[in-house]
Amino acid sequence: MGNSLLSVENVTKRFGGIQAVGGVSLELGHQEIIGIIGPNGAGKTSFFNLLSGMFIPDTGKVTFDGKDITGTDPATRARMGVGRTFQVVRPFKGMSVAENVMVPLLVNDPGVSKAHRKAMELLGDLGIAQLADTPTEALTLAQRKRVEVARALATEPKLLLLDEVLAGLNSREVIDVLPFVTTVRDRGVSILMIEHIVSAVMEVSDRMMVLDHGKVLAVGDPQTVIKDPKVIEAYLGSDEEE
Amino acid sequence: MKKLSLPWIIIPTTVALLLPLFLRDQYFLHISVLILIYTGVTVAWNIMSFGGVLSLGHAAFFGIGAYTVSILYVDYGVNPWLGILAAIIFAAVGSLVLAIPLLRLRGPFFTLATLAYVEVLRLLAIWAVPVTNGSVGITTPPTQGLAYISFESRQPYYYIALAFTLAAIAISIWIYRSKLGYHLRAVATDEDAVRALGVRTNRVKLGSLLISAGMTGAFGAFAALYFFVIEPDTQFSATLYSIQPALNGIIGGMGTIAGPIVGAIIMTPLGEWLRVTFSGASQGVNFMIYGAVLIIIVRLMPGGLVEGFRAIARKTRRGGKGRGGKRSADAKTTKEGE
């Protein structure tokens, strides 16, 4: 394992007749950003669910920060430092942006007013302090995505799993949100990010992993990975099917 | 964080405190006590709906409370005040049966389980004659005095009920603004997302169940002492103590602080007034009218009365400034986005 933060050894997950994740291994270092790409149904989100504890793998092992977390539940993993965002962002209804961010902050029970102060600080750091009192219902999609990231960051993760934070944004908004990812890494967080916009992931990733049919097709330097003939075939092939 | 608006607390509390000085009529006092009991039960019920959970099982907790205080008082000579404390504990413990469906079933399936639980307890109360005296029920002793929560006049009952209800409202406000409240309100939107943030959602949901059930047990116990007589079909009545509080809460505004209070204050006297007014007419006319009122309110104000009144207040205020048209159109789009 060496000094990697996250070590995934050959995890599998099967749903009935479908092999969602078929033996994926991955090492993630401290403050490393790995972009995960792959066609629809490649098992990217399922892989995230295995890491965050939503699913327990059928076989394989997940080690985080030196501890075996293979069978632990999502709340425990979040407390250990595994934060995640969801593909479909669902901000908590009837609560302001600051209150949304307070939900994870209150886990460690600092008291409501202190949690509010911390939430304001975090929103300030991320440059969205002006949204603090906005009800989440009134946010644009781009703003919601940022709130989703802020909320995940409030758990003070060592590892952040970003599930398509750029999806559904227009190219301007992508340019707005992308620097967010490096800002987060600069706070000392390692990142795994699933993304469909290949050019955007390449820009921020240290390494890239390509998944197809639940298996790793390629992993390594973004420039090399993207030129891999297997990757090109899988990617373009499935795009035509869509 | 919203600040509590003091006038909204002080004015209604003062009115409630002074009401018996003007309302000498015992019947009106009786209605007032009923309103207070229903407000309390609805507020207790609403603590679960902070977490987006719809319970139709509160008659179970209400009945457990009623039977606890009565059996302890009649069979074991336990003072009713202590009996109310015991009722809170027994109702909370009794609610643990529902913990299994609460943590395993989602949405309507849990709601159905709660309804079934009420029915099981009702049948149990009829069947377990040595303990509950079966269908005949239990009559509490006529010994009067504050120590026994038994009075000739309805005024003392009113003040005790008021104290209980105010306590329930205070607890509800405190929970809403506490860590538990934040976590519950978040669970109402997306439990998976809340778990991924490190919140142990099972504990949060269980906490709301225990508190909600305990509070309901206290009102069940008080109501038993107020009515003197308890029996399975009334105390474990799903219509009276499960559906009615849920209706009050939904009509007023589920999951809000003020909603259940407003709902109970409006719906209780309405139901009672219709029942009395149309008791001579063919049976069921009162329910027809009551049902029609429910449909109208839900159609016109889908977010509940409190939300509806707020929208009307906003509109009239803006209309006064002469630029209501555009602004209220904006308000509409935001609302639809919810």
Written description of the protein model:
The complex is a heterodimer of chains A (242) and B (338). Chain A is an alpha/beta fold. Chain A contains nine helices and ten strands. In chain A, a hairpin with a 2-residue loop joins strand 9 and strand 10. The longest helix of chain A is centred in the C-terminal third of the chain and has 16 residues, at 171-186. Chain A is globular, with a radius of gyration of 18 Å. The termini of chain A are far apart. The model of chain A has no long low-confidence stretch (mean pLDDT 91). Chain B has one domain (6-264): ABC transporter involved in vitamin B12 uptake, BtuC (Orthogonal Bundle). Helices cover 76% and strands 1% of the residues of chain B. Chain B has a two-stranded antiparallel sheet. Mean pLDDT of chain B is 90; it is low at 322-338. Chains A and B meet through helix 2, helix 3 and helix 4 of A and helix 9 and helix 10 of B.
Please outline what is shown here.
Chain A is an alpha/beta fold and 242 residues long. Chain A has nine helices and ten strands. A six-stranded mixed sheet of chain A has the order 6-7-8-3-9-10, sandwiched between helices.
Q: Which SSEs are present, and which pair or pack?
A:
The complex is a heterodimer of chains A (242) and B (338).
Chain A: E1 6-15, E2 18-28, E3 33-37, H1 44-52, E4 59-64, E5 67-68, H2 74-80, E6 82-84, H3 97-105, H4 112-125, H5 141-153, E7 159-163, H6 171-186, E8 190-194, H7 198-204, E9 207-212, E10 215-220, H8 222-227, H9 229-241
Parallel strand pairs in A: 3-8, 3-9, 6-7, 7-8
Antiparallel strand pairs in A: 1-2, 1-4, 4-5, 9-10
Helix pairs in contact in A: 3-4, 3-5, 5-6
Chain B: H1 6-22, H2 26-50, H3 58-76, H4 80-95, H5 99-104, H6 108-127, H7 129-132, E1 138-139, H8 155-176, H9 179-189, H10 191-196, H11 201-227, E2 229-230, H12 232-235, H13 238-252, H14 258-277, H15 285-300, H16 305-320, H17 324-337
Antiparallel strand pairs in B: 1-2
Helix pairs in contact in B: 1-8, 2-8, 2-11, 2-13, 2-14, 3-4, 3-6, 3-11, 3-13, 4-11, 8-11, 9-11, 13-14, 14-15, 16-17
